């Protein structure tokens, strides 16, 4: 038997967790009226519009399902009405910041991330002047939606692909919003901040980081051990390595900034740290429960070493902002893990609630 090695550099979709999207063809309304095919399209619409979130039977929209099965409404109209439903409104509009809601509208309805603050501002103005339903209509009635999906194709994620007329900086913004095929946009906490505002205001590209677990799938069909899987699920807090040969300290990325700029950066990063800690505190109960569900009998993984920065000058502010930056990266990793674990716990709780009478 001949095995084929798949180079992860040549095939970056494996590294970025995009394989499932690239290997799934766009889903269209079938020409036949076979119930199983129609049901498959309905499931795909719920999955896309609700951000891959688990939908309980009591949360489904039976009137929409029935109209679609009878052929009374198109895929586009199903998407429109589902996005206008109380289910969508409660999950993504009522319980989070406005900018996060607009980000998710772009992701769920157009399959991409917003490319600029101008797009965010335009949709915010629609919300202010015309209301919630007009905001949803603005995506479905756009030329972009018609050209990309038409009436009978279920919207799909396409923002991670480059193409003519697309801005490169906008291409990178999908990655903070799309964390692999197993991620979910379901709210697990009231504080669910926008992911892209800093990059959009600065007109900067977003960092492209592999989702947890993606690297274990590189290079073909090899399956990781239980320890490897847990290591991907539980992102350990990064601490400085002790003993052994240490790498040479790297220069601080903040070296060369004047004291005024350093003080401003320190203040901004301090606010970010406080916000990240608050989000972790809100997720603490659910993430602890999710960890308990997965940790049964497994051994913890060793912590990874954090980068070491050398002294960059006489100003103590350089070291302060450097330490803050490292703490922010650590907290972001912890928060990503906490959200994953909280999603697991929430999924289990929803199953138990569904069985309660």
User: What is the tally of helical segments?
Assistant: 16
Strand content: under 5%
Helix content: 40-55%
Question: How many individual β-strands?
Answer: 0
What is the rounded Rg? 22 Å
Largest sheet: none
Termini separation comes to 54 Å
Mean residue pLDDT: 74
Indicate the structural class. Answer: mainly alpha
- Backbone shape: globular
Q: Pick out the low-confidence regions.
A: 1-10, 215-244, 297-314, 353-357
SSE order? HHHHHHHHHHHHHHHH
Verbal overview:
Mean pLDDT is 74; it is low at 1-10, 215-244, 297-314 and 353-357. The N and C termini lie far apart (54 Å). With 357 residues, this protein is mainly alpha-helical. Helix content is 53%, strand content 0%.
Give the helix/strand layout.
Blueprint (H helix, E strand, L loop, with lengths): L11 H4 L3 H4 L12 H15 L12 H8 L5 H10 L1 H7 L5 H13 L6 H14 L1 H9 L2 H6 L19 H5 L1 H4 L19 H6 L23 H8 L25 H36 L21 H40 L2
Helix pairs in contact: 5-9, 8-9, 15-16
Feature tags:
single chain; 357 residues; mainly alpha; disordered N terminus; disordered C terminus
């Amino acid at each position: 038997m001949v095995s084929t090695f798949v180079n992860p550099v040549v095939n970056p979709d494996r590294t970025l967790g995009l394989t499932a999207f690239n290997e799934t063809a766009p889903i269209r309304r079938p020409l036949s009226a076979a119930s199983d095919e129609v049901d498959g399209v309905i499931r795909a619409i719920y999955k896309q519009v609700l951000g891959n979130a688990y939908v309980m039977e009591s949360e489904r929209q039976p009137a929409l399902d029935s109209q679609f099965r009878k052929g009374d409404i198109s895929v586009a109209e199903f998407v429109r009405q589902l996005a206008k439903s109380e289910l969508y409104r409660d999950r993504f509009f009522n319980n989070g910041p406005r900018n996060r809601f607009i980000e998710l509208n772009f992701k769920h309805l157009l399959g991409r991330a917003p490319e600029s603050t101008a797009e965010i501002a335009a949709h915010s103005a629609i919300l202010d002047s015309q209301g919630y339903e007009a905001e949803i209509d603005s995506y479905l009635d756009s030329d972009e939606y018609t050209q990309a999906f038409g009436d009978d194709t279920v919207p799909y994620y396409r923002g991670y692909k480059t193409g003519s007329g697309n801005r490169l900086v906008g291409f990178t913004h999908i990655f903070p919003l799309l964390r692999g095929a197993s991620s979910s946009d379901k709210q697990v906490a009231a504080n669910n901040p926008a992911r892209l505002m800093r990059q959009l205001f600065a007109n900067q590209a977003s960092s492209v980081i592999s989702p947890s677990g993606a690297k274990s799938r590189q290079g073909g069909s090899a399956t990781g051990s239980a320890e490897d899987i847990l290591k991907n699920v539980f992102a350990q807090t990064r601490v400085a390595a002790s003993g052994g040969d240490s790498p040479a300290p790297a220069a601080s990325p903040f070296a060369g900034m004047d004291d005024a700029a350093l003080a401003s950066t320190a203040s901004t990063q301090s606010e970010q740290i406080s916000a990240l800690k608050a989000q972790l505190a809100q997720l603490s109960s659910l993430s602890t429960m999710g960890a308990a569900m997965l940790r049964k009998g497994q051994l913890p993984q060793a912590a990874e070493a954090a980068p070491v920065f050398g002294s960059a000058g006489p100003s103590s502010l350089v070291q302060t902002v450097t330490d803050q930056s490292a703490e922010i990266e650590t907290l972001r990793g912890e928060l990503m893990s906490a959200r994953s674990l909280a999603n697991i716990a929430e999924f289990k709780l929803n199953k138990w609630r569904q069985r309660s009478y």
